[in-house]
Amino acid sequence: MPSTPLANGVTPPLCGGERTEVTASSTVADDKPGVSMMEQLVPEITTHALSYLDYPSLCRLSMTNSLMRKAANDDNAWKALYHKDFTMEQDGITPVNGWKAYYATTRAIISVNTEFFSIIRDRALQAMARLWLNSDYVKCIHASGELFSGYNEVMQSWQLCFNWEQGFDFQVHTVRTRILTDMAWVTMKAYLNVDGGPFLITNVFEFHNGRWHMVHHHSSVMLIDDQQVVVH
Description:
SnoaL-like, disordered N terminus, six-stranded mixed β-sheet
């Protein structure tokens, strides 16, 4: 019975050890014994191939063997993934610890920023208290335009917000991050289920004791028909 060709077009050996078809790829591999096809690819081709993988796939690939680990840890591959998943705005920067670390930190920052809006929706004061850094230099400017300075004042302002009958379920878009070692800021547009434009929001975070904490929140004031919408 004839053997079934593999996906790459090579027919597996028959019982007698014959190979019914030899492809160009196997010829290349034979030219350099002990060297895999992956190692013989031009680096640009490898990077291009890896650019089609998402974050979990690239991480899983790095755990298969030493060759795949080397390919999956290539800085250019992580730079391409960053541009695909986040933004092209930071194409000119050179992250101190490489693009893989920068990508991972960006994911962490976006996760914390998403948690911030979940806390507002759920009116979870204790969670908000844990999110903010307990320091006298933290600042919060709500959409009312009022400034609150210092941890205690900021927490009191959020307590007033959460005393309202319902939380606010923001739809957040155009999220952009920038990271400098132990500090990061995030800009975004946040929409409510009301007519009019978005709130323009900036959140600033600092890394302390293994966690990212908010140290600054600034929301623009949204106007509808020349009337100020007071939303914290």
